[in-house]
């Protein structure tokens, strides 16, 4: 049985998502949770699923990662909000005590209303990427950014701006509303596939799109992580999907438009100038917003519960 870094000949993951719970207090149109009805995020009637990874399992996965020689970045979400789980601070402390870096993503709703928790996490968490989902003007965006910079002095803060830069992900509203270039489906998958993604029930996802774990890689509660990560099956899927037209070999990939862009297609001089002008306007003032130069198409819905769910 392969259970340490030395015993398997496949490059080790560079980061880990260890999802501690299934829930999120928001219901964003750009999120693949939106149309999920499989019982993983929402049930058939569209009600949110609320499940937690047991505390002893979270800790034993961290212990296993350490035993494998992993000392990289860990995040406690997958397709959920980690801060709605009251155990969050304890898990951050546990991971840090083992020498891991905590670099998490959050929608910020719990932190916004809990200055004391921000103080406790400041400097303990190495980096937060905070989703800004509610601004409607350039000034509003700057105000939100300034707020977060006062809350965190030691933790590095970055922001995700899906209202302006949306990834087209399956099961989201955006997937059905946005233009999708069919040529992308013939391109090799160029997403980073070097993160270990563990869902709240222990199942391993191949990539950010694979929330249903359709590739059947395995469950970390049943098999050693090294065995799952270093398996021939995992290697051959990655080999296949990263080749030209490789997306057609897998049902999920054959409908996936996640792509970082056609590098060889340089836009015309006119388009480059227009793009640059839009960018400058967007960065500098409210004019761009008023003229609709900023693309906010999908409004974000917020559930009534913005507090911790568990
Ligand atoms: S806050 Fe994040 S996880 Fe929650 S619905 Fe929005 S994008 Fe999805
Ligand atoms: S092409 Fe396949 S492996 Fe790549 S991101 Fe899309 S679903 Fe995942």
Structural notes for this entry:
The longest helix is centred in the C-terminal third of the chain and has 16 residues, at about 270-285. The protein has about 300 residues and is of the alpha/beta class. The model is unreliable at about 1-5 (pLDDT under 50). The radius of gyration is 20 Å and the shape is globular. The protein has a 7-stranded mixed sheet, with helices on one face. The protein has a two-stranded antiparallel ribbon with strand order 2-9. The protein is about 30% helix and about 10% strand. The two termini are about 35 Å apart. A hairpin with a 5-residue loop joins strand 7 (about 195-200) and strand 8 (about 205).
In short:
Helices cover 28% and strands 11% of the residues. The chain has 310 residues and is an alpha/beta fold.
Q: List segments where confidence is low: pLDDT < 50 over at least 5 consecutive residues.
A: 1-5
Shape: globular
Biggest β-sheet, characterized?
7 strands, mixed
Enumerate the strands of the largest sheet in spatial order, edge to edge or round the barrel: 6-5-4-3-1-7-8
Structural class: alpha/beta
Order of helices and strands: EEHEHEHHEHEHEEHHHHE
| Nearest-integer average pLDDT | 88
- Distance, first to last CA: 37 Å
In which range does the helix fraction lie?
A: 25-40%
């Amino acid at each position: 049985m392969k259970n340490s870094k030395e015993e398997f000949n496949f490059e080790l993951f560079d980061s880990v998502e260890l999802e501690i719970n299934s829930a999120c207090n928001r219901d964003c149109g750009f999120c693949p949770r939106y149309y999920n009805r499989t019982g993983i995020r929402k049930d058939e009637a569209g009600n949110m699923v609320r499940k937690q990874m047991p505390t002893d399992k979270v800790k034993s996965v961290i212990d296993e990662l350490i035993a494998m020689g992993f000392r990289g970045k860990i995040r406690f979400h997958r397709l959920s909000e980690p801060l709605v789980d009251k155990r969050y601070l304890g898990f951050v402390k546990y991971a840090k005590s083992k020498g891991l870096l905590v670099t998490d993503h959050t929608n910020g709703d719990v932190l916004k209303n809990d200055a004391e928790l921000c103080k406790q996490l400041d400097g303990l968490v190495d980096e937060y990427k905070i989703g800004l989902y509610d601004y409607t003007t350039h000034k509003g965006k700057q105000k939100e950014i300034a707020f977060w910079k006062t809350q965190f002095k030691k933790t590095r803060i970055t922001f995700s701006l899906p209202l302006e830069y949306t990834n087209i992900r399956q099961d989201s509203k955006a997937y059905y509303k946005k233009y999708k270039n069919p040529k992308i489906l013939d391109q090799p998958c160029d997403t980073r596939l070097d993160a270990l993604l563990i869902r709240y029930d222990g199942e391993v996802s191949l990539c950010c799109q694979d929330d249903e774990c359709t590739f059947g890689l395995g469950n970390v509660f049943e098999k050693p992580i090294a065995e799952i990560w270093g398996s021939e099956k995992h290697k051959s899927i990655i080999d296949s999907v990263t080749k030209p037209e490789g997306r057609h070999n897998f049902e999920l990939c054959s409908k996936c438009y996640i792509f970082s862009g056609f590098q060889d297609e340089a836009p015309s001089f006119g388009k480059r100038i227009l793009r640059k002008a839009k960018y400058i306007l967007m960065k500098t003032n409210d004019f761009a917003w008023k003229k609709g130069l900023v693309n906010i198409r999908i409004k974000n819905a917020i559930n009534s519960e913005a507090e911790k769910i568990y």
